[in-house]
Fold:
Amino acid sequence: MLNYIILYLSIINIGTFLLYGMDKEKARQNKWRIPEKTLLGAAFLGGSVGAWLGMQVFHHKTKHWKFRILVPLFLLMHATLLIIMGRFL
Structure:
C-alpha cells in the first residue's frame, strides 16, 4: 500500500511541476495557457510539492493570491494526511 502512495505522489508531483514549467513557457511566448483551475487542481490532488517547487523554480504564479494561499494550504493538508496515514500503515 505504501509503495502505491509513494508512486502516486511521485508521479503527480513531477507532473504538476512540469505543468507549471510548461505554463510559464507558454506565458513567455504569448501562447495558449493552462487554466488556473487545472494548475490548482493538480496541486489539490496531491501535487502540492510539485506546485510549490514550480512556483519557486519558474517564478510562476507567485503574485497571484489564489496560488500564494492555496498551494501552501494544500501542502499542509497533504503533510497532515500523510502523518495520519503513517500512524495506520
In short: The mean pLDDT is 96. The first helix runs from residue 2 to 28.
